[in-house]
Hints:
The complex is a heterodimer of chains A (186) and B (300). With 186 residues, chain A is of the alpha/beta class. Chain A has helices at 8-11, 30-38, 76-89, 99-103, 123-136, 175-184, and strands at residues 19-25, 42-48, 54-58, 66-69, 110-116, 140-146, 160-163, 166-170. Chain A has six helices and eight strands; from the N terminus they run αβαβββααβαβββα. Chain A has an eight-stranded mixed beta sheet with strand order 2-1-3-4-6-5-7-8. In chain A, helix 3 runs parallel beside helix 5. The mean pLDDT of chain A is 92. Chain B contains nine helices and 14 strands. Chain B has helices at residues 13-18, 28-45, 74-82, 93-100, 102-108, 121-128, 161-171, 231-251, 287-291; strands at residues 5-8, 51-52, 66-69, 86-87, 116-118, 138-143, 152-155, 178-183, 185-196, 202-204, 208-212, 218-223, 255-266, 270-280. In chain B, strands 9, 10, 11, 12, 13 and 14 form a six-stranded antiparallel beta sheet that branches. Chain B is globular and about 60 Å long.
Amino acid sequence: MSRSPMPIEDYLRVGGDTVVVIERAREPSALLARIAGLAPWLTLIHVPDEGQARLRAEGRRPHGEITFMGPVEGRLVEVLVELIRALSTGQIPFDTPATPGLLSGLAQKRFVGVHVTASCPYCPTVARAALRLALGSPFVDVAVIRADHAPSPRVLATPSVIVDGELVATGPVGEYALAERVVAGR
Amino acid sequence: MAAGHAWVLNLDADLELGARGPSYTPAARVVAQMGDWQRQLAALLLGPEDVLIHEGREAGAARGCIGRAFCMTRRARALLERAGASPEPSPPVEVLAQVNDRAFAFALGFNLPGAELLFDAEAVAAKLATPPPSGFLGWRMKRRFGMAGRGQRVVRGEVSEVDVRFLRASVEPSGSGLVVEPEADVEREYGLHGYVESSGSLRLGSVVVQHCDARGQWSSTARAALEELSRAEADQLIARAELVAAALVRAGYFGPFGIDAFRHRAAPGGTELHSLSEINARYSMGFAVGFGRPPPPRSP
Lengths: 186, 300
């Protein structure tokens, strides 16, 4: 049976903590302004910047650093919306109940780069999974990187996941498998 | 409108915001303390055609000018209006009081270990009787509003009668409260200034080094040299300033602001950066050094 999609205004109509999104870009994003209009708990800060657009999301700590490098558009919009909702409610929609336990073993910072494009069909799932790890552990920093805006010689396909400089996944990867690779480190 | 702008450099704004009752008049010693700093600040903030407004200026001295203040308190607004200037748009005084209250910065949660906001004299006394966290020298009591190191007292070891009088005067009878935090062995003080619009648009200046005397009074500000902070530390200061800007916007504030930070000696033998020791939701002495000239005032 197919589910009808929930309208974004209903999805974001939650009572929760303040979330801050800091956008560095030449101009403020109209899309972010529209999202903020639907989520009174969201505060937007825009810092004029001629460099590559990037965005940082902050909720009630602890969580890891969360960054989007390059414009958030296409299929990445739903990733961002799910992220800010989770930051506000504190409810992390883990796929696997065992994931938080696995993350609790981390004692050192891991930097996870998820290389994506705005149109790739598998990228949102992998980006979401990585972001849940950052939401679940202050030791996991995640950057969702637009491969078409910041090409890396290591990235030949999207999605690709690089943990502390090592390519650990290309293509679809499940949340728990990703968590295992992040915890294992280099 | 005239070409220049009218400025009130009410450096005692924090005392006015923290004063109880509708009227505030600075004590003679506060006026004396401000004079020299006002001259230094005027040289940094005011443009060549700007006019400095103070109690001694004749009524109508800035007729036709847009008025701007160090902090647009009721007293600053009254001075500008008496001078014939039209004060630029500014947040309500209630918002200024809220965001310049140390309780506002405290609530953001970037506090030193063991820091507490306390409203009861007995609770403060009990706190002072406990040893500070490892690496700290004692306890510092900070009233919720104060300028240039005023309204603060450090306790190292035994609590004296003077300490008790200070804490009782701070929390009784109206219970405005005290922030009690561990006294750090400060090596270097930093600042970062910005200007935030109500839309959330933010501009940040450069990190500055602030020099203060033993009483915590400002003496000078200079841009921080590249080697002062690691890249990660500078990023941490910027991230703090961005979050402070977001909190200010959320509270209804817009305008200039600054954050203070410091590096302190920590056990064993190292140093740590405390990235948010104060929020100043107004101009400050070092504002123009790190940020440059403020944006032109908006028409009322």
